[in-house]
Amino acid sequence: MANVVVVGAQWGDEGKGKLVDWLSERADVVCRFQGGHNAGHTLVIDGEVFKLNALPSGVVRGGKLSVIGNGVVLDPWHLVAEIAAIRKQGVEISPETLMIAENTPLILPYHGELDRAREAQASVAKIGTTGRGIGPAYEDKVGRRVIRVADLADPATLELRVDRALVHHNALRAGLGLDAIDKAALIASLNEIAPEILQYAQPVWKVLNEQRRAGKRILFEGAQGALLDIDFGTYPFVTSSNVIAGQAATGTGIGPGAIDFVLGIVKAYTTRVGEGPFPTELFDDDGQRLGERGREFGTVTGRQRRCGWFDAVLVRQTCLTSGVNGIALTKLDVLDGFETLKICTGYELDGAVLDYLPTAADQQARVRPVYETLEGWNQSTEGARSWAELPAEAIKYVRRVEELIGCPVALLSTSPEREDTILVTDPFAD
Ligand code: IMP
């Protein structure tokens, strides 16, 4: 049986939510393996809109097991509120359908405060984070002072963990002019939320390996995009987790051999939220048009996304770092009506042409895109369900994308509705 990893192949917001929902119909288990509630996954099911941050997209489909893996950082209060909101929309969530890894690190209120305080410091270049405490929580995990789900079960352990965290955080907060943390209040609120979270706590690594052995199909749902990866992204303008497909193994406790297919989600143009280099960014009417037609506003922060032409150099690179077997190309319809379209095929830097994005930050900021121009199309591609419904120029565009990135299209998504999808290769096929 096939297990599939879905990753964003650009800077996030590629339309993963819909594709994960589409694939989850074929899966038995849907599993988050990195990130936290900085993600915003929008699903449209029979016209109803579901907005998810921390919960795996599988929760909205009945009969699936949804799993939050240890690679995630989890804000327990946000999760409880998200569960309540989704339940109000008629979705059933119980310990039978949702599991949280016992070794998942928790995002606590001081992580968010630290995130926002740092971003507010005018003296340091802003990252443009979501302000949700993601980075500080991952720092604490690596610094061996984070509080994990399992710690909530034992008051003595919890107090020890809190003491350890506060030594660090209170020193830091004093330097930033923030009040010291009220230990008693923090412990009281953790004790209050503990039963809500502990009812879902499981040794996820064990459950997933058992599911795998039983022949169940597991879908690993990535958040953000490969260019926000802590190692391979546009550092330091990245998120604080590994986003690329290899993280599906370490972020859940299943061996890398369990991954049979990596699906890269790729938008037919490029967007980015937050600061950092973006070689094909447009500041003209074309950019404005992409943003308006594509409704490019962040689902978490409401920020306007920066828009630009398709960058084949970046996607070729992310397809390699994630070992992508096939891509799902999304939002092709946003390109409808452009007279001509541009695709970036290389970068010019100091008189040379590069076929990859250099690592050094100053070079990333200085590369100039080399474009090739393709003919646009006038007909609408929105809602197309077969190749026959696409204009010849749109097919040419897709074929050129495949050629340049060195990876085939497995799925083509032509609207937010799940049925508006053209299937070329089923990632779950044996
Ligand atoms: P953080 O993940 O909140 O620390 O933010 C770090 C960077 O990642 C910022 O540029 C954010 O805009 C970006 N980011 C985080 N989550 C997402 C996402 O789900 N989609 C797109 N960008 C994201």
Automatic annotation (TrEMBL):
The domain of life for this entry's organism is Bacteria
Primary residence: cytoplasm
The pathway where this protein functions is: Purine metabolism; AMP biosynthesis via de novo pathway; AMP from IMP: step 1/2
Q: Where does GTP bind?
A: 12-18, 40-42, 305, 331-333, 413-415
Cellular location of this protein? Cytoplasm
Quote the catalytic activity from the record.
Answer: IMP + L-aspartate + GTP = N(6)-(1,2-dicarboxyethyl)-AMP + GDP + phosphate + 2 H(+)
Q: Which UniProt keywords apply?
A: Cytoplasm, GTP-binding, Ligase, Magnesium, Metal-binding, Nucleotide-binding, Purine biosynthesis
What are its cofactors? Mg(2+)
Q: Does the keyword GTP-binding apply?
A: yes
Catalytic positions are 13 (proton acceptor), 41 (proton donor), 141
Q: Give its E.C. classification number.
A: 6.3.4.4
Sites binding substrate sit at 299-305
Q: What does this protein do?
A: Plays an important role in the de novo pathway of purine nucleotide biosynthesis. Catalyzes the first committed step in the biosynthesis of AMP from IMP.
Entry-linked NCBIfam families? PRK01117.1 (NF002223), purA (TIGR00184)
Q: Fill in the subunit field for this protein.
A: Homodimer.
Name of the protein described by the UniProt record: Adenylosuccinate synthetase
| Organism in which the protein naturally occurs | Sinisalibacter lacisalsi
Q: What is the lineage of its organism?
A: Bacteria, Pseudomonadati, Pseudomonadota, Alphaproteobacteria, Rhodobacterales
